[in-house]
Amino acid sequence: MRKDAVMSPETPVRTLTLGHSPDPDDAFMFYALAADRIETGELRFEHILQDIQTLNERALREELDISAISVHAYASVLDKYALLPCGASMGDNYGPMIVAREPFAPEALKSKRIAVPGRLTSAFLALKLYMRGDFDHIVVPFDEIMDAVKAGRADAGLLIHEGQLTYEAEGLACIVNLGEWWFEHTNGLPLPLGANVIRKALGKPMISRLNRILAESIRYGLEHRQEAVRHSLQWGRGMSHEMADTFVGMYVNELTLDFGERGRAGVERFLHEAHAMGFIPAPVALEFAE
């Protein structure tokens, strides 16, 4: 049902800001909202599309009502935002990867300069856990990392988003798949990458309502998959429909509808290890919206 079908003329409209990345999986998740496919009553959503590092930084300033965020960055906004149980992007034995112009042993990464998509990204934190410490790196917009590697500005690059599927066509070689490493390292937990957070200041009744609406948007996309994938291709950067469908399937699935026990355990382990190694300043007690 279209949301305008249930609006009475007297109902005041309330607009909420919704930040997400300009990539196919986030576009797929929020398709039903963007295209008015589900009922939201008087609520409207201003979709703000920015790269994940920018969204992380905006969350630090509490600028958006609802936002995609790196699980890494969530550790820094606990006082402002709660995690939504829907909307997670998890790498279940796959995920961000290190690529280079030519293959080399993973141990050699310690002597390489690596292009990364942002220091607050979960991919960056996962790489720090893998490397067990800091490493030489430069920050490059996520969609320019492969170009930076090919041009020699960096010896290797940390890929997120659809680069995980297209790096071979760009003539690059995978050195480490961090999702596979994490799966083995944790005996089968998914690697937590992105999540949705919501401002605590909105209050519990509104937070509960928005949680239901966002979950319904994700469910609508999964139940109308081809329609939602066609919409997501606007942000596919040249991806075919088939490749976009594959990418969406990697990061929008049952774990996206709800973290579940495995997803929550993955987040807890990820942030616990990060704190134990001194990469985040304090222990994190997960606070999920209801």
Walk me through this protein's architecture.
With about 290 residues, the protein is an alpha/beta fold. It folds into two domains: about 5-90 and about 190-275, D-Maltodextrin-Binding Protein, domain 2, CATH 3.40.190.10; about 95-185, Periplasmic binding protein-like II (D-Maltodextrin-Binding Protein, domain 2), CATH 3.40.190. It has 13 helices and eleven strands. The strands form two sheets. Strands 1, 2, 3, 4, 5 and 11 form a six-stranded mixed sheet that branches. A five-stranded mixed sheet has the order 8-7-9-6-10. Helix 5 links the parallel strand 7 and strand 8 (about 135-140). It is globular and about 65 Å long. It starts with 13 loop residues before the first strand and ends in a 14-residue tail after the last helix.
**CATH topology name of the largest domain:** D-Maltodextrin-Binding Protein, domain 2
Class from secondary-structure proportions: alpha/beta
Strand content: 15-25%
Give me the strand/helix succession.
EHHEHEHEEEEHEHEHEHEHHHHH
* Tally of strands: 11
> If you compute it from the alpha carbons, what radius of gyration comes out, rounded to the nearest whole angstrom?
19 Å
Q: What is the level-2 CATH architecture name of the largest domain?
A: 3-Layer(aba) Sandwich
Alpha plus pi helix count: 13
Distance between the termini: 24 Å
CATH superfamily of the largest domain: Periplasmic binding protein-like II
